[in-house]
Structures are given as structure tokens and as C-alpha cells.
Amino acid sequence: MPEEQAFCVLGRIMYEYGLRELYKNNFEDLHCKFYQLERLLQEQLPELWSHFQDLNLEAHMYASQWFLTLFTAKFPLCMVFHITDLLLCEGLNVIFNVALALLKTSKEDLLQTDFEGALKFFRVQLPKRYRAAENARRLMEQACNIKVGTIILCFLSPPVLHTALTTGPKVRLCF
């Protein structure tokens, strides 16, 4: 793809798919996404969430690259291509699907780690698992079976935002 076309695709993803919002206002929307991911983790993987709480491991410590780079920083291209296709078809919420699938498939390993071990796992071991195209395909299949809708994310918004949604006149939603 020529540079000009690639830049146009980037622009459309940033503006029309909402990725630009993650970078604005002191990363306010990004922090909202972390909050939502932690609530989804608490709801869908309570044992892992509890372990992370015990370790004081917060979503921003492992998921910031997932949201800001759409998994391109550490994961193999075969997996990134699948994620990009899903993003273009389904929207930015696909990141939650992939994140939850990664956490579900890694749950047993992560439950055995301490704080430093968990960070190393996310940085090194997790991306290595998906070098094989078949592993990436299975992960994407699992991610597609996880349903995280916009309405659900609205109810998993930070309490301040949720209160503003129900009482205030003009509020920018974080999804």
C-alpha cells in the first residue's frame, strides 16, 4: 500500500473509529477503558481479578499498549491483521474482546505469578504464544465469541461518569 493510502487509513481509524479519543484530554478516555476492562475482568474472571488486586496490578500496567497500538507493539503480524480486520468491522470495542480472550487463555499461568512475574508474562511470554498462526486464529475465534456491547460498557463506566449520564445534561461518553 502506498504511503498516502496508509496515512488515509490511519486517519480514518483515528477519527471514525474513535482511536484518537484515547490520546486526548490527558488520556481521559484511555483511563476510562482501563476502568471498564477491570470491571469486565471482575465480572468475567473474578479469580484472576482478585489475584491482580492482591498484587496491586492495574489494567494500565499491562493493557496500555493494547489500546494505544492495537496490539501492534508486541504481538505478531498474523494476529494483528486479524485484530485490525475485526476493528474495521466491529469497532474499537473489539480491543476488549481480544483483551478478555488473552486474559482467559492465560488465567492459569497468571494466577501463578507475582507482580514482577505477571508484568514479564505480559511483556514476553504472552506475545510469544501467538507467533504460530494457528494459536492466533484460535485466540481470535475465542475473542469473537465474547460479546462486549456498547451498552454494557456504558454501565461499566467510572461512577462519576455514570452519575453524570443519569443526571447531567451534556456528557461525553467514553466508548
Question: Can you describe this structure?
Answer:
This protein has 175 residues and is mainly alpha-helical. It has a single domain (3-167), classed as Ypt/Rab-GAP domain of gyp1p, domain 3 (Cyclin A, domain 1), CATH 1.10.472. 73% of the residues lie in helices and 0% in strands. The chain contains ten helices and no strands. The chain has helices spanning 3-16, 28-44, 46-55, 59-69, 77-90, 94-111, 115-129, 133-145, 150-155, 159-167. The two termini are 30 Å apart.
> Whole-number average pLDDT?
87
The count of DSSP E runs of length 2 or more, i.e. the number of strands, is 0
Return the structural class: mainly alpha
Helix content: over 70%
Secondary structure elements and pairings:
Elements: H1 3-16, H2 28-44, H3 46-55, H4 59-69, H5 77-90, H6 94-111, H7 115-129, H8 133-145, H9 150-155, H10 159-167
Helix pairs in contact: 2-3, 2-4, 2-6, 5-8, 6-7, 6-8
Domain Rab-GAP TBC: 1-91
GO molecular function, one term: GTPase activator activity
Organism: Hucho hucho
Defining key terms:
175 residues; Cyclin A, domain 1; disordered C terminus
Write a brief structural summary.
With 175 residues, the chain is mainly α.
